[in-house]
Fold this sequence. Notes:
This protein is α/β, with parallel strands linked by helices. It has ten helices and twelve strands.
Amino acid sequence: xxxxxxTEVFLTLAEELHFGRTADxxxxxxxxxxxxxxxxxxxxxxxxxxxTSRRVTLSAIGAQLRDDLLPAHRQIQLAYRRAVVAAxxxxxxxxxxxxxxxxxxxxxxxxxxxxxxxxxxxxxxxxTQFADPxxxxxxxxxxxxxxxxxxxxxxxxxGPVLFTEPRALMVPAQxxxxxxxxxxxxxxxxxxxxxxxxxxxxYWLECHLPTHTPGGQxxxxxxxxxxxxxxxxxxxxxxGVAPVAARAEAYHxxxxxxxxxxxxxxxxxxGLLWPTDRATPAVQALVTVLCETVTAERSPGSARIGQxxxxx
Length: 312
């Protein structure tokens, strides 16, 4: 049976592959790390790490042990964190992911309200990337996320929609579409569509980056990108077009790009997400405050703060 210290030393060294860095992370000496590893290897009866004067690597048995241990270790850590959160109530930092700066503004405003109600609770905003849209939420790096819907994932709860934005098409300034007052979905067949270098669910891609127009015309695929800034550069360079929130122009007007509103496309809806098994009291409190804040800003006589940024 592995002891807690053995598990922590082994998994940290398996990640760092360096005795000094492992010791720094665990706040002990490299000698202690070496001692724990040697003891573990004797008990198992095989080398877990292959050492030379220049590098440390995992043996085949070490790699197998790492792969078998990691899920259980993460589950134990998650159980501990959930117990701590339950004991504290609505307290501690809440990490919220966002895909657009104007959503981040709303998160930070709601965070100020939440902290006023619950002084032990703070909110931190973190931008999500196309490359791994739900990974940080699943790994525990984020507690809540506001993303473009639809989201239909078995392990994620899709909460209320916070923002509904009309669509526009971001096109190269010299493209014929840039001279139109509006575009329709059939116009998507007239230029390559910038895509994402990520494994988005097929239902999400069909909503935001379809392969065919409603009339059945094929839509060519353009460059695949990992970050939003790349979309702007490729559109300006004439490599393709991209559907965005209509108010994107307020944030990203620049030479080489035009924004043309759709006259027939569905809206882009931004909603709340959180892991189904981590719906803590603090998460639920933040969801409530976000809904209240957004609703209040939409009410008559209340100015809506900020402009929309493109969703996709």
